Amino acid sequence: MEAFQKAYDTIIVGSGPGGATVAKELSKKGQKVLILEWGNNAPIKGTAPQAFGMVGIPGKNLLTTDLGRLNMLMRGTTTGGSSVFYCATAFDPPFEMLESHGINIRAEIDELKNEIPIDPLKNDLIGPMAERIASSALELGYDWQQLNKFIYQDKCKPNCWMCSLGCPHGAKWTARNFVEEAIEHGATLVNGAKVQSVIIDGNKAVGVKVKIKRRTYKLEAPTTILGAGGIGSAEILRNSGMKDVGYDLFVDPLIIVQGKASDVKKGKEPQMQYGWHVANEYVMTDFAMPKNPKLSIMVKIKDELGGRITDKGGCKKRLSENDNKKLEKGYDHAKKILKNAGVKKINKSIVFAAHPGGSVKVGDFLDSDLKAKLDNLYVCDCSVVPEAWGLPPTLTILGLGIRLARHLLKVETPSQEKLQSAPN
Ligand SMILES: Cc1cc2nc3c(=O)[nH]c(=O)nc-3n(C[C@H](O)[C@H](O)[C@H](O)COP(=O)(O)OP(=O)(O)OC[C@H]3O[C@@H](n4cnc5c(N)ncnc54)[C@H](O)[C@@H]3O)c2cc1C
């Protein structure tokens, strides 16, 4: 018998923003929680070889969609999921869209803003490349604004470019912070645990089948929550016989547009310090590449729903004509801004994506409480988003995690007025 083979109230699959938030909230209230995470729990060093192992392995983290212009889909597999490598930019959820699907997370988002760092960077942390791009965009009349960051600014180092390799200074807030809190409150984390399928008895889920160090275990609990991300949760459900999930996803495709300005010599700063959001079209931001002195702008679009997740956890997704037009439009804006900033020769990258989601939608396989068609089974991650997206999703997923935990604990959400009057 292994140490993790104990009685639990809840099994949570995946420790990204969705899984970690529910784990923290439930274990804080005394629930016995087991977190099963495919990736490892090595301390984050901020080195390229470590990042490669957690976010760079072809077929596992880098999925080629092999269709059309969309070439590379990224996801992190380690404790904390993709948030370990994310750019730590916080965007408010599209509250009205979620409310039209019966989901109100306004109070949860207010609460999160008191709990974790969500602020624009202070002046001494802002890099010269982002400044240059911002002044050029503002001069041309773009509404180019500072963005909120999930960063503990007292721990953040000026002229540091390591966010995207995993912050070694503990300055970037990641879902690992919530996993650590869950563990402090008694949760069990098992790494190297790849969940294969949900165990179903009649019309209810009773646990999961999981492979740990080449052995397969059947672990049972009264409640199972999938938080394996936009690809992983659909893969698990499909392998559990639910072949109607995993369709019509979004990926928020992006390109990087860049070039050198002769007077910019250094390239060490965080990504996504300022940006411009045009609802339903695109988000454009500065996007410093590690140790690269080129001025870079990311153009990320809201793509149309389409494609599918395969039973082996692959992704097939072709960009529509409209998606390609949006990318071209964004490229034109980025060229204008870069030229005005002094860049002579401009080029653009292949198409990447890092926000797979919408593959297990609310209103489709899930109700507005994130409960699946099977009893005792819930999903909480980017896959639950009910419509096309086009935004950094983390803050929304955290809000959904708190809301789901409250639902399971049968605790009422405090009103926004109550939260605003509570001491921090
Ligand atoms: C490079 C990059 C930059 C980004 N920048 C931003 C940003 O600035 N702001 C923002 O809001 N978002 C950003 N994102 C996106 C954000 O990180 C993700 O949307 C978010 O992490 C998704 O959370 P999640 O809970 O859905 O799943 P994930 O973060 O994908 O976590 C899922 C977890 O489940 C595990 N898992 C998967 N399958 C299994 C299985 N079968 N068994 C057990 N465990 C499994 C994975 O290992 C992973 O740890 C970025 C992403 C990337 C890759």
Name of the CATH first level = Alpha Beta
Largest sheet: 6 strands, antiparallel
State Rg: 21 Å
What CATH calls the topology is FAD/NAD(P)-binding domain
User: What structural class do the secondary elements suggest?
Assistant: alpha+beta
How much strand content do the residues show?
15-25%
Number of domains: 1
Each distinct ligand: flavin-adenine dinucleotide
- Given as residue ranges, the uncertain stretches (5+ residues, pLDDT < 50) are none
- Count of DSSP E strands? 22
Oligomer description: single chain
Distance between the termini: 44 Å
CATH superfamily: FAD/NAD(P)-binding domain
Helix percentage: 25-40%
Average per-residue pLDDT, rounded, comes to 94
A few lines on this structure:
This protein is α+β, with helices and mostly antiparallel strands. It is built from 10 helices and 22 strands.
Description:
It is a single chain. By secondary structure, this protein is of the alpha+beta class. It has a single domain, classed as FAD/NAD(P)-binding domain. 26% of the residues lie in helices and 22% in strands. It has helices at 17-28, 48-55, 95-99, 106-115, 128-139, 175-184, 229-239, 321-340, 394-409, 416-421, and strands spanning 10-13, 33-37, 62-63, 70-74, 89-90, 145-146, 148-149, 188-191, 193-201, 204-212, 215-220, 223-226, 247-249, 254-259, 274-278, 282-286, 295-301, 306-309, 315-316, 347-348, 351-353, 377-379. The strands form six sheets. It has a six-stranded antiparallel β-sheet with strand order 6-15-16-17-14-20. Strand 9 (193-201) and strand 10 (204-212) form a beta hairpin. The longest helix is centred in the last third of the chain and has 20 residues, at 321-340. It is globular and about 65 Å long. It starts with 9 loop residues before the first strand and ends with a helix. Bound molecules: flavin-adenine dinucleotide. Flavin-adenine dinucleotide (FAD) is lined by residues 13-19, 36-39, 74-77, 81-83, 85-89, 193-195, 227-230, 232, 236, 272, 354-355, 381-382, 392-394, 397.
